[in-house]
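dumping this here before i forget
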Amino acid sequence: MARTKLISILGVAALVAAQVVDRTVLLQSPPDACSTPAVLDARTNIWKEYTLHTDPYYRIKVEKAVEAIQDVELRDKASKVADVGTFMTTVDDIQDLADIANTVPCTDIIGLVLDNLPYKGQAPEGLAFNQTIVQYQASYIDSIVETIRSSSNTSFAVIVEPRAFLAYFNDTTNIDLAKSYRENIPYALKALNLPNVITYLDVGNSNSMDWDRQRNVAAKEIIDIYQAAGSPSQFRGFATNVANFNSWDLLPGEFVPADDSRYTRPQNEQQFIRILSDALNKNRMLPQAVHAIMDTSRNGVSGLRESWDDWCNVNGAGFGIRPTAQTGDERLDAFLWVKQPGESDGTSDPTGPGYDSSCGKEDALKHAPTGGSWYQAYFEMLIHNSNLSLRM
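structure:
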């Protein structure tokens, strides 16, 4: 997800994964669906009641990856990953979402990531601004909402548009992005305000802006979007550290000793969440809507990066805490695996499609495939650098 080229139904070419998944496997599995309507109470921490559902496609990828591992001990640890719940990226799996929903038990919740906002990355070619608005809403959001409505017995947790808020907030020159964000994000939050859905707005992470100086302005922007969506009752708060490597509670923080930053940044994600949650409260945000979830899929090892801004296939990374609602902080609803571990952030080949210079840095693992593709060496590294006996 982090900085990966968008896989867009608006015309951007789909990325081809190195590990092909047979999507007919799901249809061969006996259904275990919930038989009663799902109703999520956004005034409570629903993660104390529900388990993040295991993406069946991710399970298949992990099982194939396990077969390729020669080391017996590493293979045994890797096999445990197949049972861990992860979020699904809707652009990839929307066509099969209904089939997946029909197999979800009442105790599980499907995690979805909306990641298709026009102008968040490279602007769609050949489309006028009004066309992108209509196609995003009608072809993307409405299609997802229709599937969710038809799967009313299934629970869903949706993270809305990773990286979009920061791109919109920080890039004042991108007028199309600002218009797209102000039109489309409220539309998505309002459309997804369904009894069986809980939503979180992605707001970046602790090192993504000067949260000391800009906290109140950022909080006001979030509240404006929330109110433009009609103050949806199923909105719970914000998502942080999606596809990133930041620590939850490391003190002193990873880069406190070094002045590598343009901004004054919180030392860790816990401090960031408290800063933003307090700012939202002071700006009169609905009390239920100031909670957070954090991606811990790859943050098990700290102190690896040359800069806090380095985000691509960080060398030496390991799995973080598996999904749990036991966070020790009432502001944080849950640690969750949003980014699917083993998926490449981007190619390290300067001549490859979608190459970003961050993927060629010294602290990025090399021989990385195109963003979104399966990266076997990275998957094995994540296992090797994690104490799975404690974390799984």
